[in-house]
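Supplementary Methods S3. Input chains for the assembly prediction are listed below.
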Amino acid sequence: MTAAPLALTMGEPAGVGGEIAMKAWLAGREDDQVPVFFIIDDLDRLQKLGKTAGLDVPLAGIETPAEAAGVFASAMPVLHRPLPGTAVPGEADQKNAAAVISAIETAVTLTGAGEAAAVVTNPIHKKVLYDAGFAFPGHTEFLASLAGVHTSPVMMLTCPGLRVVPVTVHVGLAEAIKTLSTDDIVTIASITAESLKRDFAIARPRLAVAGLNPHAGEGGSMGNEEQTIVGPAIEKLRDMSVDAFGPCPPDTLFFEAARAGYDAAICMYHDQALIPIKTLDFENAVNVTLGLPFVRTSPDHGTAFEIAGSGRASPASLLAALRMAADMADRRGA
Amino acid sequence: MTAAPLALTMGEPAGVGGEIAMKAWLAGREDDQVPVFFIIDDLDRLQKLGKTAGLDVPLAGIETPAEAAGVFASAMPVLHRPLPGTAVPGEADQKNAAAVISAIETAVTLTGAGEAAAVVTNPIHKKVLYDAGFAFPGHTEFLASLAGVHTSPVMMLTCPGLRVVPVTVHVGLAEAIKTLSTDDIVTIASITAESLKRDFAIARPRLAVAGLNPHAGEGGSMGNEEQTIVGPAIEKLRDMSVDAFGPCPPDTLFFEAARAGYDAAICMYHDQALIPIKTLDFENAVNVTLGLPFVRTSPDHGTAFEIAGSGRASPASLLAALRMAADMADRRGA
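Predicted C-alpha cells for the full assembly:
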C-alpha cells in the first residue's frame, strides 16, 4: 500500500518552520527514515529562505498531495499558498495571518478527505493571529473546532521513554488548582488510555496518576486534593477498567525506574508534566493531540524568532513529530 | 592539617542507615575517596546488621572523634550509643526514639566543639519521633533549634549539574501559593548566594529565580504572581548585589543548556525543585541545609523500610552527602 503523505503546515512564516522543514527533508535524503510529507507554504519565500539559511534543498511545487510521494526523493514537495505579506525572519507580518490559518484548515481538510495521512503543525505566533481575529487559545482548540469535536482535546507530550498528559494546561497555577476536577481527570485519562491502545498499540495502557501536593499530600498533612479529587478519579477509572494507579508522589514519578512502570503519567498541572519532559529531552519532545478524529502532532517548541533565518534551528523535534504522526496514522490505517 | 572526621547520625535504626553507612565505609576501602567519618550508633546492633545484610565490615568502638582517623583505614569507627529498644529492619521501635534524637544532638555538639567537621544525618522516621514528643517538623528545624538559629534554615537539593532551593517546602500546593512572599524569596536567595560563595567557592553565584505559573505567567495572562511577588524579589536581590535573574519559565529551566546558565535555581514550591532533581539523578541527590552555623548534609531519601535489612540499599546518596560535607567543611576551614 502507498500511505498518504503527511500534511505539514507553514506555521508563522517569520519563525523557524520553513527552515526546520527543509532540514527535516535533508535528513530524509540522508537516512531514508523520514516519512513522506508536503508543506503547505509559499514556494517563493521558501526558495529565498533556503538561500538565506544556506540550505541546498530543491523544492517541487505540487497541485495535490498525491504528487508528494513521487517527488519526495528528489525535492521537498510544496503545496503552494502565496503569502500576501512579507516573511522577514523574526518579524511577524499581520498580513500573513489569514494564510497561516488557512494552511491549518487545508491540512485538516486534506487529512479528513484521506488525501493526507495526518496533520503536523509548525509553530504559530499567537499574538499576530489574535490581532487578526483568531478566536482560539491555540492550535489545539482550533483543530478541535475544525473537526467538530466539542469536548476539549487532550495534549500529550512525549519524548523517548516518557509520555505526560496535563489535566490543566494554560492557566495560572492557583487557577489550575481551583478548577481541577475529578471529572476532568477521568475524561482526560480515558481519552489517553484509548489513544494509547489505538495509536500506540499498547494493549493495556498503564496510567500513573500524579498527586497535586508534595509527597501526594502525605495522608492529608500537606493538602487534601488527593483524597477529594484525585483518588476518586482513580477509583472511577478503575471501575471503567482503565489501569490507573496513584495518586503518586510527583517528585519520584519521573526517574528512570519509575518511568518503566507506566505508559503515560496523568499530571495535574502544566509544569508537573512539562518540567520532566523538557528536563529529560529538550530537543526531541513531541506534542500530540489526542481526542481528535485525525492524527495531529507538532514539534514542542515555539517560533524561535531569536534564531529564525540564521540556519541554527534544530529539526529534531519536527523530525520526531513527523515520525510519530506517520506511526500513529499507520496504526489507524490512515 | 588533619581535618576532623564527619559525624554521621544513626537515623532510624529500623531503616537503611546502618547498612548504607557500612557500604559507604566499604566503598572508601576500595577507592580511598570517602572522607573519614564515624557513626553515632549502637555497636552491637551494627554487628548483627552486618551479618544479616551480608556485609563484612569490621567495626571499631571509639570514645572520641579524634580516634576515628586512626582506625578508619581498617574499621568503621562507631561512637557507641546503646539502643534501649529493638532494631528490627522495617519495624520502628518507639523505645529508641530518644536515642535517635540524642545522636543528632551529639553530632551537633561535637561539630560545634570542633571535634567533628560536619553533621551528616541518616534518615529518620518522623512518626515514631512525633509520638515520643519530638516537636519539630523534621531534621532541619531541629538542627536550627539546636544551633540557636531563629530564621528558618534553607533546604538545598543538589545532584551533579544542578542545585535547587525551594522557597516553600512541606505544605500543600494551594497553601504554598498563598504563603509565597517577596520577603521569603529574598531571604532564601540571599542565604543561598552566601552559602554558594562560602561553602562552594563560587565567587559570584548566579541565581535563576523560577516563576510560579506556566510560561512564568506569559505577561500576566496565566497568573500574576510573577509581577506581584517574584519580580519584586528579583529587583530587591539585584539591589543587594545578588546576581539573580528571572522570573524564568519553569519548564525550560532545567535542561542541560539552561542549567549551565546558573549556579542554583530558586524554586517557588517543593515539586518545582524536586521533580527536576529526582528526574535527573535519583541516586546521587544530596540534601544540604544552608543558614546553619555548621555544615549539614544528608542523603536525599527516606528510611526505605521496604528494603531495610535486605542488603539491597544503595549507599550512593550517602556517599555523595559525605563527600559534599567534607568539601564544604574544608572550604569553611572546619
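The mean pLDDT of chain A is 94. The two ends of chain A are 11 Å apart (CA to CA).
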